[in-house]
Write a structure and sequence with these properties.
- This protein is of the alpha+beta class and 417 residues long.
- The chain has three domains: 84 residues, no CATH class; 92 residues, DNA polymerase, domain 1 (Orthogonal Bundle), CATH 1.10.150; 154 residues, Intergrase catalytic core (hpI Integrase, Chain A), CATH 1.10.443.10.
- Helices cover 50% and strands 11% of the residues.
- It contains 19 helices and ten strands.
- The strands form three sheets. The chain has a four-stranded mixed β-sheet with strand order 6-7-9-10. Strands 1-2-3 form a three-stranded antiparallel β-sheet, with helices on one face. Strands 4-5-8 form a three-stranded antiparallel β-sheet.
- α6 crosses α8, α9 packs antiparallel against α10 and α10 runs antiparallel to α12.
- The longest helix is centred in the first third of the chain and has 20 residues.
- The protein is elongated and about 105 Å long.
- The termini are far apart.
- This is DUF3596 domain-containing protein.
C-alpha cells in the first residue's frame, strides 16, 4: 500500500511539472490550443514518469510548429478523427497569402486598378496583422477590422477596402486557407449621408455665366450636366465619338488619374442620346479642336488585352494653354481642379464634379423620364440603382404622377400621336 501511494504521488508530482498533460481513461492525454480550438489527444501510453516526460516533449514540439506555421495534425495524430475535422484549412500567414493573391488578381484588372487594390489589401493586412495565420481568423476579427477602418476613413473609402478584402477572403475560402463565412463578414457601411446634391437650374446658370472664363469650360460643363457622364468618361471623349447627324454620343473609354485609358466602368460601351443643349455643346467643342491632330492611344480592357485607336481629344488642355508643352487630355484630377475654380468664381456652394452626373439623373427623374431609359443613358446595368440612390427625387415627382397617368389613360389618342 505504501509503495502504491508513493508511486501515485510521484506521478502526480511529475504531472504537475508539465502544463497541458493530463490523465484520461488510464492513459496520457495532451492538451493544446490550435486555431482557437482546444485540442485533446490521447496517446494510448500507460501512465509512467517516462511517458509523461515524452508527452511533454511532444506537446512542446507541437506548440513550436504551431507558432512557426508548420503544424500538421495528421502527422502527429494520424488515427485521430480530428485529423480530418481540424485540417479543413491550411496554415498560411495572411501576408504570404496576399502576396500570392495579388498577381493572380492582377490578370483581370488594369495597372491603375491593381495599384488601388494593392494599397487596400495592404491596409487591411496591417490592421489584422500580416503575420497572423489565416486559418484562425473569425468573423469577429473582420468585424473589428470594419471598426478600425471606419474610425479614420470616409464610408466610401472603408467600403472600397472591405470590398477588396472580401475578394481576397473569398479566394482564401475557395483554397481552404481560412474558414468559410469571412468574406460575408465584410459588410459595407450604409451611405445614407452621401445623398446626391444636384445643381439647381439657377446654380447651373451661375456656373456657365459667372464661373466659366472660356467657351470650352461652359460647353464641357453643359455636356456633363445634360449627359450624366462620369468625370473619367467626360475627359476621355474624342471627336470621333460624336455623331452630330443622329445626335448620339458613343462612350467607349474612360481616362484614369494617371492618364491611362480603360473601358467604361461596366466594361461595355454605350450610346447616349443628346438633348439639344448637349448637342450644341458638342458642336462648340468640336469647332475648338478642329485644327488638332489625332492622337494614338492604347485602351486597356484588362492587364493583358488592349486596343489602339487614333482619335482627337474633345476636351484638351491645349485648347486654352499658352505653354508649348501641355497634356493633350484632361484627367479626372486636373478636371477637379478646374471645376473647383469655376465653382469658386460662380459663387455657388462647392460640390464634387461627380454631382453633374447626379444633376442629370435628378433632372430627368423630376421630368418623369422613363427609368429604364435613364439607367441605360447613365450606363447602369438596370434601374435598381436609380431607385435606391434617387428615391427622394422620384418622390418629389410623384404628386402629379396619378394625374399624368389618368390623362394618358383617358386620352390614349394624345399619347399615340
Amino acid at each position: 500500500m505504501g509503495r502504491e501511494r508513493t508511486s501515485a504521488s510521484g506521478l502526480e508530482a511529475e504531472l504537475a511539472k508539465h502544463k497541458g498533460i493530463e490523465i484520461h481513461g488510464g492513459s496520457i492525454r495532451v492538451v493544446f490550443m490550435w486555431r482557437r480550438i482546444r485540442c485533446r489527444e490521447t496517446l494510448g501510453l500507460p501512465v509512467t514518469k517516462a511517458n509523461i516526460k515524452h508527452a511533454a516533449l511532444l506537446r512542446a514540439a507541437i506548440l513550436h510548429e504551431i507558432k512557426t506555421g508548420h503544424f500538421e495534425y495528421g502527422r502527429h495524430f494520424p488515427n485521430s478523427k480530428n485529423a480530418t475535422n481540424y485540417t479543413a484549412v491550411k496554415d498560411e500567414r495572411i501576408g504570404a497569402l496576399m502576396e500570392r493573391y495579388k498577381p493572380l488578381k492582377a490578370v483581370d484588372i488594369t495597372p491603375m486598378t491593381e495599384e488601388k487594390y494593392g494599397y487596400a489589401l495592404d491596409i487591411c493586412a496591417n490592421l489584422l496583422g500580416s503575420e497572423r495565420l489565416a486559418g484562425i481568423l473569425l468573423p469577429e476579427d473582420i468585424q473589428r477590422l470594419r471598426t478600425q477602418l471606419i474610425a479614420t476613413r470616409a464610408p466610401s473609402t472603408a467600403n472600397h477596402y472591405l470590398a477588396t478584402f472580401a475578394g481576397f477572403l473569398a479566394w482564401c475560402e475557395d483554397n481552404r486557407y481560412c474558414r468559410e463565412g469571412l468574406a460575408a463578414a465584410c459588410v459595407r457601411f450604409a451611405m445614407t449621408g452621401r445623398e446626391p446634391d444636384p445643381l439647381t437650374k439657377a446654380e447651373f446658370d451661375q456656373l456657365i455665366n459667372k464661373g466659366c472664363l472660356h467657351v470650352q469650360d461652359s460647353a464641357a460643363i453643359t455636356l456633363a450636366v445634360y449627359t450624366g457622364l462620369r468625370p473619367g468618361e467626360l475627359c476621355g471623349l474624342a471627336v470621333e465619338d460624336i455623331d452630330l447627324e443622329t445626335g448620339q454620343l458613343h462612350i467607349t473609354r474612360a481616362i484614369t488619374a494617371d492618364g491611362t485609358f480603360k473601358v467604361p466602368k461596366t466594361g461595355k460601351p454605350r450610346t447616349v442620346f443628346l438633348m439639344p443643349p448637349a448637342l450644341d455643346a458638342c458642336k462648340v467643342l468640336i469647332d475648338l479642336v478642329a485644327n488638332h491632330e489625332p492622337r494614338t492611344i492604347e485602351i486597356y480592357m484588362n492587364r493583358h488585352e488592349s486596343r489602339v485607336e487614333s482619335v482627337t481629344p474633345l476636351l484638351s488642355p491645349a485648347t486654352q494653354a499658352r505653354k508649348k508643352v501641355i497634356n493633350e487630355w484632361f484627367v479626372p484630377t486636373s478636371w477637379n481642379t478646374k471645376w473647383a475654380a469655376i465653382q469658386k468664381r460662380s459663387g455657388i456652394r462647392a460640390r464634387r464634379p461627380y454631382q453633374t452626373r447626379h444633376t442629370y439623373a435628378c433632372w430627368c427623374l423630376t421630368a418623369r423620364g422613363n427609368l429604364a431609359f435613364i439607367a441605360k443613358q447613365m450606363g447602369h446595368k438596370d434601374f435598381t440603382m436609380l431607385v435606391e440612390v434617387y428615391a427622394k427625387w422620384m418622390d418629389d415627382a410623384s404628386p402629379r404622377e396619378l394625374e399624368l397617368i389618368w390623362e394618358n389613360i383617358s386620352h390614349p389618342q394624345k399619347t399615340e400621336s
